[in-house]
Design goal:
1 helix; four-stranded antiparallel beta sheet; mainly beta; 4 strands; 57 residues; 7% helix
């Protein structure tokens, strides 16, 4: 297993989307952009965060 240390470049505000698991429920969703440490041309990753994790800023 390989471990990578990434830097948070940007994070969107959490928005609420309808949850398919619950009749009336909503789920918090936030997008985050991560970049590998190093130079300007390192790889970047876009990830979606859901639930309580999306509410952390």
């Amino acid at each position: 297993m390989e471990t990578k240390i990434l830097k948070v470049v940007a994070q969107t505000e959490a928005v609420y989307v309808p949850s398919k698991k619950s009749d009336n429920g909503q789920l918090a969703k936030s997008m985050i952009r991560l970049k590998e440490l190093g130079g300007d041309y390192e790889d970047e990753y876009i990830c979606a965060m859901f639930g309580n994790l999306a509410l952390w800023t």
